[in-house]
């Protein structure tokens, strides 16, 4: 009997396992994951969990019936520490080895940290359920919260902390939060979500240190200022979990490098989700959005099975979807599709920038992206139009 090992039990790993079974794989299926908790959905961590509306038990990606249908072995609480690509043998943290005929790498990414902050109480990142529960405990007491990083996670944490009644400051290195993701015009518009809810924005500076002694009390900035803080949340991006592949010969560069069919440089090894930097018509992308972790594993599973069956994976459709992300902040939903550039022109199509709206980005007259705030119907139409343009570009 053949064995396929899926390394990672987050959304990408679970979807990869489901896709293997859907595509007719009937052999041994083993999922390897560091976390002991059953696989769960991550987007609610910065919202429902922090706000006390969920304790995480309702975030499961699979129920008992679905897990039984997978007929998989779950090796939880132990991560992979090495991979021998010649034999596709995994070394595990608990000392075991796992030989496989095929491997799907879905190890995701981890929150980046700031140097010298790990020993101070009150300093948090947000990536796992345990992270969210620890942060929620700290937010249960009155205090001043400083969020370092004004991206989507930082903005959602700021929104939740403000809803809990905290005084909140967001520190962002760029002059405007989300500048690189949304462009200058849209980023300025969305800054008002913070300021309209009495969240202070400190931009164009970096954090140079956190002052304790045991619990954080101040955040020092590159311009010489300092901010009082009882809780600090670091939201400065994520790093792909590829260190365990050092020495394997599998090419990595800000992620596991794959082709359009999710194949790595090692035969019989594919990658999907946050950890994968895949090749596409617009270059090479590593996308940390929920939709990518949901969809990419299907291509990876099909590609791997084609290889194992002696078929040519390049006969399959390439993976080059329309990027899409949403974010819930301050009671409104932001939706973004496409890959707008920083110099693309934003054109309002419906609503008002002062309230809810739908807009498109244009580059050389063509639509390059869509942006909406609390306008799901209009956004759905724009997304369909953009998807058609994306498929034929």
From TrEMBL:
GO terms for molecular function: oxidoreductase activity, acting on NAD(P)H. The keyword DNA-binding does not apply. GO terms for cellular component: cytoplasm. Residues 3-295 form the FAD/NAD(P)-binding domain. Keywords: FAD, Flavoprotein, Oxidoreductase. Transmembrane segments: none annotated. Residues 324-386 form the Reductase C-terminal domain. InterPro entries: FAD-oxidoreductase/Apoptosis, FAD/NAD-bd_sf, FAD/NAD-binding_dom, FAD/NAD-linked_Rdtase_dimer_sf, Reductase_C. It comes from the Bacteria. The keyword Magnesium does not apply. Its cofactor is FAD. PANTHER family: APOPTOSIS-INDUCING FACTOR 1 (PTHR43557), RIESKE DOMAIN-CONTAINING PROTEIN-RELATED (PTHR43557:SF2). This is Pyridine nucleotide-disulfide oxidoreductase.
